[in-house]
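Students often ask what a 'structure token' actually looks like in practice. Rather than answer in the abstract, let us consider Putative sugar ABC transporter (Permease), a protein of 278 residues. Its sequence is given first.
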Amino acid sequence: MIQQKHAGIGKWTVNIILIILAVIWIFPFLYVIVNAVKSSAEYSTGNFWDLPKSFSIAENWEYLTQQIQLGSGFINSLIYGTLGGGLGIIMAALAAYAIETLKIKHGLLWFFVIYSGTIFPFQVYLIPIFKAYNKVGLYDTQLGMVLIYAALIIPFSVFVLRNFLMGISKEMLESARMDGASDFYIFRKIYMPMARAPLAAVFLFQFTWIWSDLLFGMTLTKSESARPVMAAVSLLGGSTIQKVPPILLAAIIVSIPTIILFILSHRNLEKGFVVTTK
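Now compare that with the structural description of the same chain:
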């Protein structure tokens, strides 16, 4: 009885602590939602905890579309996250398959060469990439942004997918070869379906990074036609207090795609990282 009583008290204590932490975490989010729908005048004259007297979402959205062209930045980031992330992961999957399954010459050395791309901070690459892009005409273009994002996500993606491949039974792959399956057929029909969970996990991780990136978006673009959404939102950084509600609305809008993507793929995310860490 005493042990059960202590266990019950401990359970209640843990629950109370978790509730307090949840309230602390939710409060800033509620602050953003409540103030994002206020007008600039209402925000500047009232208290931040006051409930909105009127909803000015349309007014704040109009300001965002006029000042920073948030819509075009939103579409650009969707393109970069989808195409850049997808292209980089496909290249990483091919590289991981070649290194681990095809047993290419000096495969481990090639792996370390590719993975060495994660050693240096991305700031180191900025000046060489900037100069190269200016020379070849890729500066301030959507193609240039897709290519740089695809290249940057390859090292970590190879690391994750190679770990997954190391856990696949070699006997199964050998039996497929004995049945006449080519290496590309094995990659397309066996490896890719089996790797659905880690591929989804890596894509979610890399899409989120591309979507949230500010460094390359600010450095490699200058026009609205190529500027990603975070670089567009950063243009509001010098705004005065009267422009706070549009900034908060922008923060909510730019967080929607990653939230939706996480909800749709959270099961594969959990399975993917469990598989790749075994």
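One point worth highlighting: DSSP finds 13 helices and no strands in the chain. Ask yourself how you might have guessed this from the sequence alone, and why that guess would often be unreliable.
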